[in-house]
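# nightly structure sweep
# worker-07 picked up a monomer target from the shared queue
# config: single-sequence mode, recycle default, output format = structure tokens
# input follows
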Amino acid sequence: MTYDIAALRSHFPALAAGTAHFDGPGGTQTPTPVIRAIADALAQPLSNRGRITLGERNAEAIVTGARRAMADLLGADPSGIVFGRSATQLTYEFSRTLAKTWSPGDEVVVTRLDHDANIRPWTQSGATVRWADFDPATGELTVDAIRAVLSDRTRLVAVTAASNLIGTRPDIPAIAQAVHEAGALFYVDGVHHTAHSLVDLEESGADFHVCSPYKFLGPHHGVLAARPELLETLRPDKLLPSTDAVPERFELGTLPYEFLAGTTAAVDFLADRLDPDATGTRRERLAAGYAALEAHEHVLRTRTDKGLAALDGITVHSRAADRTPTLLLTFDHHDTADAYGFLAERGVQAPVGSFYAVEASRHLGLGDTGGLRVGLAPYNDTEDVDRLLTGLTDFLER
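# output follows
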């Protein structure tokens, strides 16, 4: 297993500007192969999908290629890959579709750890809402917390695979087992998780897994993975002439072909560049690459944790035993917005906010303000971390 950070960084033209990016949880920088794939898709003949003209065939090849790529990334069936404008849009569409099958008094379970995109679509669905809380002292969301709010009226449970605010990774397979024992469906927000750990839809136990390629080096749109046979049972609202085939029945309008080409390129980049020595199928290379990525991010997170521990006046709210390399910070005597500006002036991008995880921020006692979020991405290196720590030291010593 190898991880050549210098070689990896050379593929990201945005890094030439000199900024140390810790804003990966909000969206990563884009490597050249993804940029080139998007441009190439637009440069060649392109039209609505079909099999007659070159433009039709190009569009068809892009869509089927992107479904295969995302299926490899998520351990899913290509026929169960649904594309949408964003993870938020997909979740809203599926909440409306599922809600049509529910009766008055049926219940959904949401958690205070989640991004609002996996809360509000369900609380607005018309079902009775039950809340599962995480422990603000530890950041942990346990299976017992989920089990405590399940009932024979539970129809769906929505849980994040990793908190985009504090990084907590709940035990998704254990939660899935509890949810299915209650006879409910399990909807997993994998937007933050998919950027840091290889997903296996079957092993996770998720009935639905939603993610966003722009969080793992790709373009801006959303992807949902589910078993095709489950999708066959759902009847979304759609236009009369639109196909009723799965997964296309869930895709509204013409797909963004150029972005799907970029998504395939992003998956190939993860398969080929994170561990250049990896061999085998794309799924096997992805597994090796993600193992190398997790080892690299562990080293950087450990370096960051130690550096922060040496500074007085900082509270780190990311405390779960299993978490992504994502840290939420607040300061005893300083406003986080001031820290954000101070770091930005020194070429360190670490944004401030609740990042749409408003329930989690409130549960931590931070209101809607949140904190300063430090999130690692595949292209971060030790120099980035040292610049961050130096900047925070200077800020606290002003």
